Amino acid sequence: MGPSEGFRSLAILLAVAAAVALAYGAHFQNAAVVADSTKKVKTKGGLSLKQLLALISRPQWLSGTAFMGAGIVLQLAALTLAPLIVVQPIGAVALVITSLLNARSTKTRISRPTLIAVTFCTVGIAAFVAMASGVAHETVLNDDRLREVLGILLTILVIFGVLFFTIGKRMQALTYVAGAGVLYGFVATLAKVVIQRIYQQQFELLTILCLVALIGAVSLGGWFVQNAYSSGPPDLVIAGLTVIDPLVAVSIGIVVLGEAKDAGFLTILGWLISAVVAMIGVYLLSKVHPELSTKALTRKHLV
C-alpha cells in the first residue's frame, strides 16, 4: 500500500523544499532564455530548436536545470511518503518565491493587481491541500487503472505534439504554460504510479511503459516551458505550472487512482471552489503582470 500516514508531515516539508528549488530553477532558466533571445529580434512566442540547443551551453541555464533536478528528486521523495493529492499542490509555494525573485532581478515593482493574482493562486491551492490532507489515502493500483492513465496521456501527447509543430510559433505564453501544466500533471501521476508499483512489487512491462511515457511527457513539457519563458515572465510560468499541474494530477488521483474515495460532498465542493479560485489567479496574472505589458509594448515597437 505504501508508507505509514505518520510520514505525511515529512512529505509536506519535502514538497515545500521542492517548490523552493523549482522557483530558483525557473528564475535561472528564464534569465538564460531572455538573455539569449535579446541577442536576436523576436516577434514570435516560440523558440527554434537551434535556440533551445544553444541554451545547453549557458551556465545560467544549467544552474537552473540543476535546481529543477533537485526539485524533482525532492518531489519524488515526497510522493513516496504521501498521496499525490496532498503533495502535488504544495508546489504553489514556488509562485510566491518566483514572484519576489523576478521582481528583484528585473527591478519591476510588484503591482497591486499582480499581488492579488498571486494571492488567488496561493490561497486556492493552500485550501485544496488543507482539505485533501484530511481525507487522502494510498490505494492499490491495478493494471486497468494504469492503462487508463497511459491511454489518456498518449492521446494528449499526440494532440500537443501536432499543435506544437504546426502552430507553435503563434502560441502565446499562457498557451505554452497550459500545455506544460497538463503534461507535468501526468508526469507527477506516472511518477506516483511507478512508486506505487514498486511498493506492490509489480515492476514489469506495464511499469516500464509508464517510465517511457513519463520521459515523453517531461521532454515535450520541458520544450513548452522554455518557449513560455521566451514570451512571458517566470512567475506566470510558475503560476500556470503550480496550478494546472496539480489540478490535472489531483483529478487523476481522485478519478483514476481513487485516493479521495472517503471525501464527502462538502469536501468535494470545497475542492471545486478552491480550484476555481486558483485558476482565476492564473488568468489574472496573465492579464495584469507588469512585465507582460512591457514586453508587449517592446515587441509592438520593434514591429
TrEMBL record:
<feature type="transmembrane region" description="Helical">
    <location>
        <begin position="263"/>
        <end position="285"/>
    </location>
</feature>
<feature type="transmembrane region" description="Helical">
    <location>
        <begin position="72"/>
        <end position="103"/>
    </location>
</feature>
<feature type="transmembrane region" description="Helical">
    <location>
        <begin position="236"/>
        <end position="257"/>
    </location>
</feature>
<feature type="transmembrane region" description="Helical">
    <location>
        <begin position="115"/>
        <end position="137"/>
    </location>
</feature>
<keyword id="KW-0812">Transmembrane</keyword>
<protein>
    <submittedName>
        <fullName>Unannotated protein</fullName>
    </submittedName>
</protein>
<keyword id="KW-1133">Transmembrane helix</keyword>
<feature type="transmembrane region" description="Helical">
    <location>
        <begin position="205"/>
        <end position="224"/>
    </location>
</feature>
<keyword id="KW-0472">Membrane</keyword>
<feature type="transmembrane region" description="Helical">
    <location>
        <begin position="149"/>
        <end position="167"/>
    </location>
</feature>
<feature type="transmembrane region" description="Helical">
    <location>
        <begin position="174"/>
        <end position="199"/>
    </location>
</feature>
